[in-house]
Amino acid sequence: MFPDYEIDLVRQSLVKVLNKYKWQLSEEKIDSLVIHALVMLKRTRQNSPIIVKKEEVIPAQQSEEYRMTEAVFDHAQQVLRVTLPESEKVYFTWHLMSCNPSKLPQQDNDPAHQLMDKVLEQLTTQLQIMTMTNFRNDLILMEGLSVHLPSTLHRCRHGLSIRNPMLHEIKKMYPYMFSMVVMALEEVNQNYSIHIPEDEAAYLVLHFQASIERLQKKRETKKKVLIVCELGVGMSHLLQAKLEKSYKGMDITGCIGVRDLEETLNKERVDFILSTRELEVKDPPSLVISPLLKSEDRTKLDQFLQQSSEKAVFSDHLVQWLKRGTARFDVKPLHRYEVIEMLGNELAEKGLVNASFPKHAVVRERTSGTAIGGGVAIPHAPPEDVNESAVALAVLNEPVEWGSELVSVVFLLAISKQDQAKIRPLMHTISRLSTQPEAVQKIIEARSVQELEQVLR
C-alpha cells in the first residue's frame, strides 16, 4: 500500500532513534510502528488527521516518547514535505508507550477506559469464535488495540468522523477479515450504543490481519528453495544473501548451475526454484529473477509466493453451494439493495435461509458496502439466519453502482454457523477471481452454472 522509498525512510528513521535511546524492540513491534507511521503520513496528506482529547496532549508532550516521536518524523517530514499535526504526534507517542506498558497511564477507574476493556474483550471474543483464531495469544495485537481503541471510541462517542484513506484497498485486499470485523462490530455497537463506522473498522482490520499473519508464521515451516544461477559463485552468493535478508520464510538449500539441476532434484525435495534463466522443469515450479534482485523482481517474487500459498485455500465449496443455491444470468440492472433482496428471497423460498435473511443482508450492506473491486461484490448476513449453507449469484448485463464502485457479478453468501471454518477459503477464492479481469468477463458471459463451474475450476 506504500512506496518502497517511503517505507525505507520511515524504518531507517525509527531504527536510528530506537538505537539512540537504547530501546530493544522485536521486529514485529518495529513493523507495527512503521505501519502506523505510514498510515499517519497518508492521513495527514489527505487532511484527515486523527482526533485526540485536549487534556491528553500535555501529558504526552512531557514524555520521553514524544521527543522520540519528533526525532523519528523530523527527517521524514523534511524529505516528504509533510507536516504532522500535534494530534498525530501524540497518537504515535502512545504507540511508542505501548511498547513499554509500564509507561502507559493507569486509568482503571476511568469509565472510558472501562468501556475500552469491555469492547476489546467482546471484539476479540467474537472474532476468535468467527475465525477460530486465538487472538489473545498475540500480545502485540492486544497491546496495539489497547492503544488504538480509546481514541476510536472517543471519536465515535463524540461524533468525530475520520476518513480512512486506505478503506478501498483494505476492503479489496482483505475481504474476509474486513467482513468478520464488521460483523463483530455490529454486536459491539448494539451492546454499547455506539457506532463504529467502516472507516474505523478498516484500521481494526489491519491489526487483526497482522495478527493472523504473525500467528500463521509461527505455525508454518520454511519453504525450501533452490537457486539456479549461471553467473558465477560470487553472483550466486550475492543473490542468496539478498533473498535471506528479505525473505525470512525461505530455507535456501543451495546455489547450483543448470547442469546439476536434475541430479539435485533427485536427491532432495524443494518447494520451488529461483533461477536467473528459463528452465524446462515444470515440477517444482520456478521463477526467473535477476541476480541483483531489483524492485521488479521483488514484486514478481511477492506475487509468486502469494499465488503458491493461495492455491491451498481454493474453495471447492463455492461450486457446491452455488448448485444448492441459485444463479441468475443476464440480469437487467437493479439497485444493489434490490439485487440482494431478490437473491435472498430466492434462498428463503428454498428454505435455505429464514425470512429475515434478505432484510438483514440489506442492513449489513448499508452498514458497509461489500464491493471488493474487479466488478465483484459479496453481500452476506449473520449465520444465525442461515439454515443450510448456500451461495446465490446474479450476473448483471450492465454494471450497477455499488457504493463507490461498479459491479457486474454478485455473490450473496449464506454460510451457516457450522460452516464458518469454510468462509475464509471461500472469500479467498472470490477475492482471487476479482483480481483476474479475464475470469470476471467469462463469468459475465456465462449463461449456466455448468459454464460458470468451468470458469471457477
Automatic annotation (TrEMBL):
UniProt xrefs under Gene3D superfamilies: 3.40.50.2300, Mannitol-specific EII, Chain A, PRD domain
Any one Pfam family match given in the protein's UniProt record, by short name: PRD
Domain PTS EIIB type-2: 223-313
PTS EIIA type-2 domain sequence ranges: 320-457
Keyword list, A-Z: Repeat, Transferase
Entry-linked InterPro entries: BglG_antiterminators, PRD, PRD_sf, PTrfase/Anion_transptr, PTS_EIIA_type-2_dom, PTS_EIIB-like_sf, PTS_EIIB_2
Protein name: PRD domain-containing protein
